[in-house]
Amino acid sequence: MHAYRTHNCAALRAEHVGQTVRLSGWVHRKRDHGGVLFVDLRDHYGITQIVADSDSPALEVFEHLRAESVVTIDGTVKARGDGTTNANLPTGEIEVYARGVTVQSRADELPLPVAGEADYPEDIRLRYRFLDLRRERLHRNIVLRSNVIASLRQRMIGQGFTEFQTPILTASSPEGARDYLVPSRVHPGKFYALPQAPQMFKQLLMVAGFDRYFQIAPCFRDEDARADRSPGEFYQLDFEMSFVTQDDVFAAIEPVLHGVFEEFAAHDGKARSVSPLPFARIPYKESMLKYGNDKPDLRNPIVISDVSPEFVGSGFGRFAAIVEAGDVVRTIPAPGTAEHSRKFFDDMNAWAQSEGFPGLGYATRKAGEWGGPIAKNHGPEKMDALADALGLGPDDGLFFAAGPEAQAARLAGLARTRVGEQLGLIDKNRFEFCWIVDFPMFEYDEDAKKVDFSHNPFSMPQGELEALETKDPLEILAYQYDIVCNGVELSSGAIRNHRPEIMYKAFEIAGYSREDVDSQFAGMINAFKFGAPPHGGSAPGVDRIVMLLADEPNIREVITFPMTQKAEDLMMGAPSQVSAKQLRELNIRLAEAAKS
Question: What is the bridge-based pairing of β-strands 488-495 and 535-538?
């Protein structure tokens, strides 16, 4: 017999009744039924019920063991009695009568419970992450993550991609987020950087003649945490393709993402659908108008409309003045709100003010009758015409966001989401994908008072060199695209600018000299001068994919050992101080030490 187990804790069934078995695992729960002790024994695979009575030498041992102690059980498989089976467990038809127990490791008093899914302070959970990972939901999430990565890898290979690894120690990038820097011992005063993404390397692989590259790539950015972004490091499905158009990129990655989401959509027992192929394509400008942002949640049926022309010369003087000043009025339908009191609308206005906006106007409607000051001043006939143009029903209200276009769009987008949530309009049983396309190549930076890149400086402008030389920079679109699922941006991507003369011109418009490009992006621009293929790609975030599939609101719930929001590892004590000897080897003197 094996030293620790003949079966795992999810393997035994009714057909094993009568067999002598050996199991090992953690004491999950104990239940004392007066001389009979029931123990749930847990391992990575599942739970088996162990029974010890007064005739079992294991009884006394179990009575003195804390939960989470590790034991090995020798016993006999027995069928559970009528009415005592557990349909929620694969092993629920049997139990193991313990004839002997060996304690492999005794557990001290626990700083947090493993059994159950009660909320616990995040700092405790992260400090004792090895215990937290034993909990069923989190354990299941991490297994899901592993399975998703395996599926992504297999599907990419099936699409003709080859996996390559790119360097972890590289040069600092002047663009993007803050780098994590690594001092060089053999080159005093110089630093490596951890890659924010394998962007330049994957493009250089295309220049090197490889055709379809991918990797599950670790990326490092010194950024603040968000619910959908982990500080420090994250993983992405990084890929690049040669001799492709934007449509070719979409055709290659859509089946991979669609297949993975279909494969794991019901992993937790929920039946969730995935939007059919091909995914919707929404121009950036349209997305900003209809949804108020460039990562729309298409499960929400509400569509924002621009109604500025409706208020030109309107009886509602405030909106008329806003439109005459060159600003806009956007409207957000509130379907089926006739039965809601005015408090619902007033609460929405108060919410908008709490978000830093002047307010959120509204008009109520019940059985076709309008209410509220906007409707009163604008007049019922004009309000009816507005409702008809928007396709509203007799019991649908309206919210209004007015002001400068960017501000009104942002408020309308936030209000669209909140109204959808408050009214229960968002279908939680769907994964809705879309591509956001046709991003502007440039934008005007009000702070710097100059034109700058709006998205990715290495993207190919639509119209290429001719567009750069003849069009208003703010009207030039780029072959840039984001893929979005349920309002979460999974990645940005682009068809790359592979021609040096176009790159020099694009950077010139953004205020960079030829010398700036040659010095700051030497590796890439020099490579392009030796024959570069047209190429493009993207990099969907693995953490975000798993977060969506696991139906988790926070990305830390799908990462094995995440940091806190302050980028601290409470379990390992990182970041930490290092010794004076280490600093001397790296030719580094700390600022505080230098002052003293």
Answer: antiparallel
